[in-house]
Recover the amino acids of this structure.
């Protein structure tokens, strides 16, 4: 029996051997926005440093403000203080957004 995601049609049976953290990191590329946000929030709670490169890629490639805010919050939570400048660089095009400004101010 196979289980498929109703949004992206990925065969979930093939993922059963992956670790929970690997599944969460993979979920950052899911086409359904709420799944991406949930995965990012869980990664933040778990403080999985392995997620930082995927979060950075998500911030670089996404324009959805809610996904950007979730990814930025998690980046702040997981990353070291010295990575704040990297986050600011990644979000430089979105700095005018009050949501992004709020995240960056709280990240300090």
């Amino acid at each position: 029996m196979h289980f498929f995601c109703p949004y992206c049609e990925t065969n979930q049976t093939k993922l059963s051997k992956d670790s929970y953290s690997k599944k969460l990191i993979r979920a950052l590329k899911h086409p359904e926005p709420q799944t991406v946000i949930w995965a990012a929030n869980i990664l933040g709670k778990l403080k999985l440093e392995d997620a930082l490169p995927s979060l950075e890629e998500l911030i670089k490639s996404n324009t959805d403000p809610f996904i950007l805010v979730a990814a930025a919050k998690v980046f702040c939570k997981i990353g070291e203080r010295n990575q704040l400048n990297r986050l600011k660089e990644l979000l430089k095009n979105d700095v005018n957004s009050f949501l992004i400004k709020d995240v960056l101010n709280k990240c300090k």
